[in-house]
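User: Predict META domain-containing protein's structure from this.
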Amino acid sequence: MTLTAAAALVPLVVACGTGKAESGAVSVQQPVTGIDWRVDSLTVGDTTRHAPASARLRVEDDGKAAGNLGCNQFSARATVHGDRITFGDLRTTRMACSPERMAFERALARTLTTGTLTARTEDRKLTLTDGDGDRVHLSRSAPE
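Assistant:
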């Protein structure tokens, strides 16, 4: 693997510190990009809502993000840097669904776009946490 190829892979994985800050210990977790993630639930404050079955998210290596918020499709630009992900403005379709699905969709869109999210992966699961502590819980979709 060339140095250029290795450098290109660095932003595609989520990394987090595992020791004291001064130790420099880092563990590399599973990649976040190039994977179809199913949205399982959303926790805002003390309330957890289960996601509609259609809720999905995928971030490509080139920074394109797309998915479904629970009713409407969306696309956006995404920046992945280490364990941090920032989504740009979401472009969405404008279908109307049940009030419950629309409420979930608005809450998910707000959580994804309120600022930089911290990503944590473990056992085919991904959690995106915003600065207020709200969390999007996702699972890696089964290969088709």
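Residues 35-140 form a domain with the Lipocalin fold (CATH 2.40.128.270).
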